[in-house]
Amino acid sequence: MSNRYSASKLREIRALGSHYAPGNNYTRQWHPIYNISPKCEVPVVVKGKEQPLRLMRWGTWTIDGLLANELADTIATKAAWKSAVQHRRCLILADGFFEWETMGPWKFAHYFTVTVRDAFPMAGIWMPANDDQPERCIMVSTKPNELVATFDDRMPAILSDWDAIEWLGDKPLPPGAIGRLCQPYPAEKLSHWASPQTVSRTTFQDPSAIRPVPQNPSNN
After folding, report:
1. Which terminal residue of the chain has fewer beta carbons within 10 Å of its beta carbon, N or C?
2. Rounded to an integer, what distance in angstroms lies between the CA atom of residue 178 and that of residue 167?
3. Residue 189: is it exposed, middle or buried by C-beta count within 10 angstroms (0-12/13-18/19+)?
4. Under 8 Å CB-to-CB from 130, ≥6 apart: which residues?
5. pLDDT in tens, 154-197
6. What is the H or E stretch that residue 135 is in?
7. Predicted confidence (pLDDT) per residue in 99-110, tens digit
8. Burial classification of residue 79, based on how many CB atoms lie within 10 Å of its CB (0-12 exposed, 13-18 middle, 19 or more buried)
9. d(Cα 95, Cα 65) in Å, to the nearest integer?
């Protein structure tokens, strides 16, 4: 999985957050993020009465380095995540994600959106702040559908509305629930197009990052 996505439609992202956290009083401002990479602050929804819609850093430092996502198949079995899976699940809010295609010596970014929704929730877990790191989250990834499989061997665990509500619930998940909720999102509900090569730079935050461009090896 490419570890890149977007949260650029602020009105739609806020509306989605309010849907899953009714009555939230989130007032902190944030700006559109067209090319999110690990260590960015991203909008998430957590279960709780105090600031359920908030910004968290995406990614947590582990002994193996910065980790931004974990497979649904293994997240419940690893000691580092067991408690979070049962008690600190969250929804990471997005409006698109990137995958890369290799063509000879070149790599081309492709931007994926959900055709039936302006913004959508992805499964995540979160960790509270400690002496070393701020409040932070990681994304749950899953096996790719047939469309994404041509680019990568995993994709974000995009949730339907009802699955998102269950994922956000404050009760531990029963056996088998993670696999049931974090299924590959249907390929027929996704659209994608080529993005500019400049998306490969994490500092590139122009709106053109999520606009289609001609796919040509001479484009840099």
Report:
1. C
2. 8
3. middle
4. none
5. 999 999 999 999 999 888 888 899 999 999 999 999 999 999 98
6. none
7. 998 887 788 899
8. exposed
9. 27
